[in-house]
Amino acid sequence: MHTLGGPDLIVQSIRPGLPAEYAIARKLAEATYLVIAIDETDADEATRARFCGKGIGASCRVAVRDAVLAFAHATAAKPHQAGGLAVLLADQ
Q1: Which of 30, 63, 74, 84 has the fewest Cβ atoms within 10 Å of its own Cβ atom?
Q2: Is the backbone of residue 28 left (phi > 0), alpha (psi -120 to 50) or beta?
């Protein structure tokens, strides 16, 4: 998890054989987050043109940290009606 700003964090999902996926985790309450996938279509055309690399099976493949941050800020700035809930549980 990486700080994005305010109550938002960037989270990364890694699955063997697949590219990394990124999401915003917005803190709702202690240890409770709304998770929203970072979507390149939230960014304007100039940002997409600058940072989207084309890849097989992907409309936008990012290769640098600045690209992840640009798209994360764009997603965080938009209202979202759906997402997932993540709750951090204490180790027992």
Answers
A1: 30
A2: alpha
